[in-house]
């Protein structure tokens, strides 16, 4: 990765197989995690990349503050080799609240 990530831009190389790496600071800023879907869009000779969020229309969403808290909790879990799988947003929120209470 080269300079510019702090301003929202970065430069990476493309491998023989057409693969590239999304710089860590940009992944974090866009909340892109392992297994997430990303959409590639071409406009002329330019490429645009965006994270794809799939959720049922009626499902409650997390606020920006809740997402930040959940991201921090997941990062702590990964650091300790722990993995939690959620089957619903409500399950993730309930677990997030329980972890926050436990951390205090």
Describe what you observe in this structure.
The chain is of the alpha+beta class. The chain is built from three helices and two strands, in the order H-E-E-H-H. A two-stranded antiparallel ribbon has the order 1-2. A hairpin with a 2-residue loop joins strand 1 and strand 2. Helix 2 packs across helix 3. The longest helix has 16 residues. The chain is elongated. The termini are far apart.
Biggest beta sheet attributes: 2 strands, antiparallel
Helical residues, percent:
25-40%
**SSE string:** HEEHH
State the strand order across the main sheet.
1-2
Q: Number of DSSP helices?
A: 3
Instruction: Give the distance, in angstroms, between the N- and C-terminal Cα atoms.
Output: 37 Å
Give unreliable regions as ranges: none
Note the topology.
Blueprint (H helix, E strand, L loop, with lengths): L23 H6 L7 E7 L2 E7 L11 H16 L9 H15 L1
Antiparallel strand pairs: 1-2
Helix pairs in contact: 2-3
Provide keyphrases for this structure.
alpha+beta, two-stranded antiparallel ribbon, 36% helix, single chain, 2 strands, 104 residues
Quick description:
By secondary structure, the chain is α+β, with helices and mostly antiparallel strands. Helix content is 36%, strand content 13%.
């Amino acid at each position: 990765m080269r300079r510019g990530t702090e301003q929202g831009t970065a430069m990476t190389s493309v491998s023989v197989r057409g693969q590239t790496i999304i710089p860590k600071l940009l992944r974090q800023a866009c909340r892109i995690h392992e297994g997430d879907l990303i959409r590639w869009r071409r406009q002329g000779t330019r490429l645009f990349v965006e994270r794809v969020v799939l959720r049922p229309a009626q499902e409650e969403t997390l606020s920006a503050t809740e997402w930040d808290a959940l991201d921090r909790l997941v990062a702590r879990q990964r650091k300790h080799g722990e993995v939690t799988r959620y089957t619903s947003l409500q399950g993730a929120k309930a677990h997030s609240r329980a972890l926050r209470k436990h951390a205090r």
